[in-house]
Amino acid sequence: MSPPNVRDPSSSRFAPIARRDPRAVSPVAIVWPCPFPVDAYVAAGRGVEFPRPACPSCAGPLVFWSGYRRHVREAGRCLRIFVPRLRCGRCGVTHALLPAFVLAWRLDVAETVGAVIAEVASGACGVRPAAARAGVPHTTARGWVRRFGARAPELGVAFAALAVELGGDAVRPVADAGGFALAAIGAAFGAAAGLPGWLAVGVWRFASSVSGGSLIAANATSPWLMVGKRRFMPPVPPLPA
Ligand SMILES: [Zn+2]
Asked: H helices within 135-210, ranges in order?
């Protein structure tokens, strides 16, 4: 069986830096804070009310420009979703517009990945029982936890800074980097949840949104770079209170 398609062509791993034209603007995955259940997103297909953010490179207008399909796994089911592309005429580049329940290059939804990471990083249990509860292979869960652990110091600092930027509590680093990162993500989400729309999006979709889907990506840019005012996209469409 061939592996399910989880390519996100606009994520950074698609175009190795060495082969790019140095003058060219790089396509990025734009992650929008989609509040809809995965099933509703799948059912709506191209009819989802997608937001149309400004170009992440030049802040110019973007237009919808076709799209692609990729798989996502939720609760043991593999589903195919439509991912629109947005094109910037000024930059001559198309960006993928990923819903926040997706992490770039990962098959499983952000909530599944986040639940495993939270259980293990908080010390509640080991990888094996967390993987069994989430219904994912042990090796897959171990990969997430290792990647999160490797990025934890950087993620902790970035999310702690975001928490403060959003008017939330300061989170002090602790000896355990994973615990610090987890606390910082929680604090940043706690602060964001005071703003319209975010509470319904949930903590792991929030984390995916502000990290551009790269929460546990290899070679990720720091989410610190993604949370400037321009990229901190409010949930669209606005949700009823
Ligand atoms: Zn542009």
From this structure: 138-165, 177-192, 198-201, 203-210
Report the run of H or E that residue 41 belongs to, with start and end: helix 38-44
Ligand 1 centre and the CA of 159: distance in Å? 27
Q: Where are the beta strands (DSSP E) in the chain?
A: 29-32, 63-74, 77-88, 93-99
**Counting Cβ atoms within 10 Å, is residue 66 exposed (0-12), middle (13-18) or buried (19+)?**
exposed
Q: How many CB atoms lie within 10 A of CB 92?
A: 9
Give pTM, 2 decimals: 0.85
Rounded distance from Cα 233 to ligand 1 centre (Å): 16
Domain ranges (residues) in the chain:
12-226
- Ion ligand 1: residues, CB < 5 A: 55, 57-58, 60, 88, 90-91
One pLDDT digit (tens) per residue for the chain, 241 residues: 445 667 665 444 343 444 445 456 778 788 999 999 999 999 999 999 999 888 888 889 999 999 999 999 999 899 999 999 999 999 999 999 999 999 988 999 999 999 999 999 999 999 999 999 999 999 999 999 999 999 999 899 889 988 988 889 889 888 899 999 999 999 999 999 988 889 999 999 999 988 888 888 876 654 444 444 444 555 544 444 3
CA of 130 to the centre of ligand 1 (A): 42
